[in-house]
Amino acid sequence: METEQCVSISRMLGRVTDKWTVLVIRVLGRGPRRFNALRRDIGEISQKVLASTLRDLEENGLVSRTVTPVNPPQVELALTDLGREFLRPIRGLAEWVLENAPRIEAARSAYARRAIV
Question: What b-and-e string marks burial along 15-36, b requiring 16 or more CB atoms within 10 Å of the CB?
Fold first, then answer.
């Protein structure tokens, strides 16, 4: 693979595979949300981190913002077609984790036992 392609892939994976991005994509996969509803659904995420994550996702074409001009303005966030396509590998990854959780936990326990000795 060309170096330029590797750099591009690495840069994009770095942007879209962090913990918060994955959680935002999964929650928006259930349907559009307003900012505060999205924040509640995700859990322990600060307003600043959520806003930054959403900006990155919008910049990369995965999330759209629709502003309704009322007072105060209402903003609805939703996955774009690209975001819905990205949801498939995210779901696949989540399924892999669930299927392999016992093996992962066994490996962690074995590592912890070795680290103690």
Answer: ebeeebbbbbbebbeeeebebe
